[in-house]
Amino acid sequence: MSSRMFKFGVTAASACVGSVIASWSIDRWNSPHVVNNAVQRPPKRKRTLPMRSEQIKSLMSGEEFDVLIIGGGATGAGCALDSVTRGLKTALVELDDFASGTSSRSTKLIHGGVRYLQKAILGLDLEQYRMVKEALQERATMLESAPHLTHPLPIMLPVYTWWQVPYYWVGIKAYDLVAGDRNVKSSYLLSKNDALELFPMLKKDKLCGAIVYYDGQQDDARMCLAVALTAARHGATVCNHVEVKELIKKDDGTGKKVLCGAKVKDHISGKEFTVKAKCIINATGPFTDSIRKMDEPTVKSICSPSSGVHIVLPGYYSPDQMGLLDPSTSDGRVIFFLPWQRQTIAGTTDLPCEITHSPRPTEDEIQFILSEIKNYLNADVEVRRGDVLSAWSGIRPLVSDPNKDDTQSLARNHIVHVSPSNLVTIAGGKWTTYRAMAEHTIDAAIKACNLKPERPEAVTSYLKIEGGQGWTPTMYIRLVQDFGLECEVAQHLAKSYGDRAFAVSKLATLTGKRWPIIGNRIHPEFPYIDAEIRYGVREYACTAVDMIARRLRLAFLNVQAAQEALPVIVDIMGEELQWSKDEKERQIKHATDFLANEMGHSINRTSKERIPIKLSKEEIQTYVKRFQLIDKDKKGYVSINDIRRALKSFGDGDVSGEQLHEILKEIDTNMNGQVELDEYLQMMSAIKTGDVAYSRFARMAELEEQKHEAANLKQKISVDRSGGGL
Questions:
Q1: What is the pLDDT of residues 676-721, one digit of tens each?
Q2: Torsion 404-394-496-43 (CA) sign
Q3: Do 615 and 600 share a structural domain?
Q4: If we measure between CA atoms, which residue out of 179, 185, 181, 187 comes closest to residue 129?
Q5: Where would I find the EF-hand domain in this sequence (predicted)?
Q6: What angle do CA 468, 469, 471 make, to 5 degrees?
Q7: Average pLDDT over the chain, rounded to whole?
Q8: Over 90: is that where the pLDDT of 217 sits?
Q9: Phi and psi for 514 in degrees, rounded to 5?
């Protein structure tokens, strides 16, 4: 045992000392590119945000842009901001919506990568080390540039084997050391009791202690949108729902064919037109190779896609301000368990996949995540399939390595490639390093296409992102006092829009109540208000999916709540965009399909259908009785009219038709507009086993039985037996 301890101590100490020496020597001989911020200053941004129609008009003007960027994710938006702030005439087009792909489906972390640092040190991998160091530098930059959308997050690493305590402690301290003076906060060691105090849900059996380190957390979709809007305010032409149909080439005078523009289609108006550009940048993430093959059909693929699934659980699964890291799952992956917008995110998986515009989570991946987090939570927290509020899959655009087959061994570093026709491709990378990736890409574009920027170097390292300039942590108090908003709503607006929250608040309608004065919620469980829908249209939201998934994050937080809020959202958007009745119905159908297929709604329903009925004879008799009490006409099924009648008897006479349909849909698994007895029994069995957390229909049936029994008891006790009263 003493020999084992000695060897472990030597290994741990060597790793720590080695990381310090490596950090010093690499930094000394490989200093990163430094921008002289004192010399270079970005142009002042415009006061007003151009309307989408104005952006499309600019795109159709026939003027030649210096740079045309394909892709409106984090990297594409970052390239647009870097390019326009250097003084280049910049345009960006996105097939769907800003952040509609991988950029809105991340773990929401801003991090350097603890796992990659471990590989860098143990494998003496210089490339991995540089990637981690760059990411840690960019982590600090993101936290400074968008303080309203980002914040430091402590993450706990629980340790259940005593000898791993010094091992993980050394590794996390190395993480702090590599960050240097750009570290967020210092990591620290916790005893077992202190760990349980900070994370009460943690399993305490055999717990030796824990290590807490800091990374950043963000609202990824709104961060990407904010970067794109910042670029637009600086003069860039940014357009969503515009597809590149063809790349155009010309002879450069030497016999070489080079790109000079693209044929595009605006999917909102249906118009097709040509955009001229001196340089075209391919920033399409997982779809990198499709644009490269549009340029040269015979080119080899460079992207190796990997699917990552996340699930959202209720907020009580984790503390408000403490995440959890499982460093080694049953199959060697890493699982994060993080608080986010009052809910809990768990993920992710990491499997090779096919490239698609509509990635879907699978039941197997959801069950894998649930089974892994069970290992870290105490017996009081029953991890139930029915608690999964939302689930989504994102495709990571990993740069493939022909010498490695396992996607887990692929680093998330990026490459910049220039084709013979001058197509500049940025591939790979990670959310955290989007700004540095954009800087490297624009540097390459300037060189390859002989562009003449006003400022030769990037100025984005100290630029505030949309909403960050006038934001303060206590700004929400002014929103409460000046506008009469609920405190929770004001905090949400301040965190989502920063100093633009005042402009949002001005669009809010009166509630007609004493308090709050303005701000009608679109769903009672979430702080989203009507004004955000109207402001979202000004932020280039064109469809209901744009709104529920990326302007608001409702689809990611609770897919059922998003479905329930859809009619209100579509009505308000219809007013702003002059939608017809048919268009509103089309938007609702499209959004419903999105929620069902990409946000896990259909999988949640399917998981209920697969549940066998596990009820005792007595339980079945009880539930049959309750069902028959609601089915007063003895039809053999419960209709929406039966539900309306039952709710009215409880005093809920103001229930809307949409709410009645939602109650019916949560139990009507065969989708025939009525509830059969077997569907009700299946629901009750699912509630018993934990596969379903709660059912309004089940609660209604229980109340109906209580009301019936109370009425019977009243009839049985006659005046004579009661003594005639007092």
A1: 777 777 777 777 776 676 677 778 778 877 887 777 776 655 545 4
A2: positive
A3: no
A4: 179
A5: 618-653, 655-690
A6: 65
A7: 86
A8: yes
A9: -65, -40
State the number of CA atoms in the 13 A half-sphere of 512 facing the CB: 2
Q: Is 457 helix (H, G, I), strand (E, B) or coil?
A: coil
Cα separations in angstroms, 49 against 46, 89, 642: 7, 17, 51
Same domain, 95 and 233: yes
616 and 692, same structural domain? Answer: yes
What's the pLDDT tens digit per position in 373-430?
A: 998 999 888 888 888 999 999 998 887 643 445 444 454 578 899 999 999 999 988 9
Same-domain pairing of 309 and 363: yes
Average pLDDT over residues 643-662: 69
| 462 DSSP 8-state letter | G
Write out the residue range of the structural domain in which residue 82 sits.
52-104+222-301+405-462
pLDDT, mean of residues 77-96: 97
Q: How many structural domains comprise the chain?
A: 4
- Cα dist from 259 to 59, 161, 262, 275, 449, whole Å: 17, 59, 8, 11, 10
Q: How far apart are CA 386 and CA 687, in angstroms?
A: 8
Average pLDDT over residues 632-652: 75
The whole-angstrom separation of Cα 714 and Cα 726 is 17
Residues 6+ apart with CB under 8 A from 125: 119
Calculate mean pLDDT across residues 258-263: 97
What's the CATH number where 195 sits? 3.30.9.10
Nearest-CA neighbor of 101 among 393, 408, 415? 393
* Neighbour tally for 692: CB within 10 Å: 24
For residue 83, give every residue at least 6 positions away whose Cβ sits within 8 Å of its Cβ, in sequence order, or none: 66, 67, 69, 90, 236, 442, 445
Amino acid at 433: T
